[in-house]
Amino acid sequence: MSNYTSFTPSNAEITVSDTITLFLQDRKASGCTKRTLENYGLDLNNLSKFCNVQGITFVTQISSNILRQYLLQLGKCHNPGGVHKYYRSVRAMFNWVDNDDLMLDGWKNPSKKIRAPKVPIVTVVQSVQES
Question: What distance in Å separates the CA atoms of residue 29 and residue 106, rounded to the nearest whole number?
Answer without folding.
Answer: 28
